[in-house]
Design a protein that fits this description.
This protein is of the alpha+beta class. Helix content is 28%, strand content 34%. The structure holds biotin.
Amino acid sequence: HEIHHYSEVDSTNNVAKELAEKGSPEGTIITAESQRSGKGRRGKKWISPHGGVWMTIILRPDIPTSQAPLLTLLTGVAVAETLKRECNLDVGIKWPNDILIGDKKVCGILTEASASKRGLDYVVVGIGIDLNVNVDDFPPELREGATSLQRELEKEISGVKLVQNFLLNFENFYNDFKNGQFQHILNQWRRLSTTIGSTVEVQKRGRTVRGEAVGITKEGVLILEMPDGSLRKIISGECTHFK
Ligand code: BTN
């Protein structure tokens, strides 16, 4: 695989999209030591100092555009499995794609797809892991909800080894996915999910829905049971857990 490593970029997702437009093949990987304007979901900034893993993978899967969100779930499972195995950490996934240790976020995933009427052209999957970063340097509003591997393990850990293991796990899950074995990935996701079984509030465009998260569909859509017993499907939004 081609690996493009930079000391600093604006955003590895943006570099990946430029390379994909120029024809870079599936499996091309972009990593950076820091990002000037790292991007989070919903137009948020992603703080990306030295010491973190900031990485994007270019994919060209032959799937309907509607299945692109599954790549985010797959990536979340691959990160969670890697952290469990390599760092012996008890990690959970908060729908759709936050990797948590306890109730603090250690990794976020941002998937961006380019599609035309012929279907999906390419997908870039961006992964940000707070490895050896000091969350005390984060802005106050982010500090509370964030942690890093260094903080959890009380030591610095090797980013190279972590990335290598992640890529091996990712490749296995992605091959399963391309072979149509998505059920297995969804089962893993359900097992790792801290959302299923929790009372959650999902916010989207200023509206809030509160209910009990009871499941996820095979498209990655969250199913909430409302107080009146009815079921409601949530495609996307900002999710908060309650006890
Ligand atoms: C989120 O949880 O809001 C998603 C965060 C995604 C961050 C990663 S870091 C590498 C890649 N490049 C970016 O600009 N964002 C993603």
